[in-house]
Design goal:
alpha+beta; 11 helices; Arc Repressor Mutant, subunit A; two-stranded antiparallel sheet
């Protein structure tokens, strides 16, 4: 391997502003250039130049969602590289902690669960997506997704039928949709619509007037907690969900 390539990557990661932006993405979220500029405490034009270099080097990946542009770590290998540097840096004298970048709606009800066109969004939705991926029921690949033969068993634990998904349609059966608040993907497509419809019909979620916010009912909490699992549920409801 060319030592100049190693030196180039080390130089890119080692610049303080770029390091701050990379660390802000270590929680798996995707952030805008303005949000990353705030994390690095630099101006937007300077941040854009830094981000272009990181994308060009393959350290960051640019994602487009409508008119918005988000940046995320390009691969697990990049995350492991940063983790290794962080472990070594942790042995040095303590420095100021990285800034936590707030994203999405400020309203707690909207952050927890809301409708996104015809599917579910918010913290609950990303927990559902994580559960389906952990079950091997869906696979997300960049901007596409697919359902697997494990899906009926996974949704069957909720009492959901996947029969409607067998209908031939031009609409994608499953695709990732980057969540506005969590900056992680939730489930869109026909599968996302099915999950939201089932939760509403069963009274597990309820609409809040004219708002897109969706309230979680006690029966819904009981059913989804069993399905999602205790550990993921504890992470989801660090603060009790709004009713």
């Amino acid at each position: 391997m060319n030592t100049n390539d190693i030196a180039r990557i080390a130089q890119l990661v080692g610049e303080p502003a770029r390091a701050a932006m990379l660390l802000a993405l270590m929680d798996g979220r995707a952030l805008t250039a303005l949000e990353l500029a705030a994390a690095a405490n630099i101006g937007a034009p300077t941040a854009s130049r830094h981000l272009a270099l990181l994308v060009d080097a393959g350290l960051l990946q640019l994602a487009r969602q409508g008119r918005h542009r988000y940046h995320r770590l390009a691969s697990p290998e990049v995350a492991r590289l940063l983790e290794g540097i962080m472990q070594i840096a942790a042995q040095q004298p303590a420095a100021a902690p990285a800034r936590r970048i707030p994203t999405g709606p400020r309203d707690a009800a909207l952050r927890f669960a809301r409708s996104c066109y015809d599917h579910l969004a918010g913290q609950l939705s990303t927990a559902i997506a994580e559960t389906l991926q952990a079950d091997g029921a869906i696979v997300f690949d960049d901007e596409s997704g697919r359902m697997t033969e494990q899906l009926p068993a996974s949704l069957g634990r909720l009492g959901f039928s996947t029969d409607a998904l067998a209908t031939v349609s031009k609409r994608p059966g499953c695709r990732p949709c980057l969540d506005w608040g969590e900056r992680r993907p939730h489930v869109a497509g026909r599968l996302g619509a099915l999950i939201l419809d089932e939760c509403l019909q069963r009274g597990w979620l309820r609409r809040a007037g004219d708002s897109r916010a969706l309230g979680l009912t006690p029966p819904g909490a009981a059913a989804l907690q069993r399905w999602i699992g205790a550990e993921r549920w504890r992470r989801l409801i660090g603060d009790p969900p709004p009713h």
